[in-house]
Amino acid sequence: xxxxxxxxxxxxxxxxxxxxxxxxxxxxxxxxxxxxxxxxxxxxxxxxxxxxxxxxxxxxxxxxxxxxxxxxxxxxxxxxxxxxxxxxxxxxxxxxxxxxxxxxxxxxxxx
Length: 111
Prior knowledge:
Elements: E1 2-4, E2 9-12, E3 14-18, H1 21-26, E4 38-42, E5 57-62, E6 68-74, E7 88-93, E8 106-108
Parallel strand pairs: 3-4
Antiparallel strand pairs: 1-2, 1-8, 4-7, 5-6, 5-7
């Protein structure tokens, strides 16, 4: 589960954490859509790209404590910013961008 502790909102019921290089490189490539209740956490990670993607996502950059440093909606083909202090990037469905803001804290657990 992925939760925004600032608002108490559950952002995703199903969370996959990609820790190994191969898992992080693959990310969401090859998928045709993002399930509404899913999230992918890439850790460690400071920057992502959308080359080869077919749909937009919300990228949430967080530090070691889970504090949100930046939130960006990324379209296919775009490259996200490199956030130096980021420890992880949480990928969410594109329409969740307004639900999380810089300064919020997110916490997650794997399924």
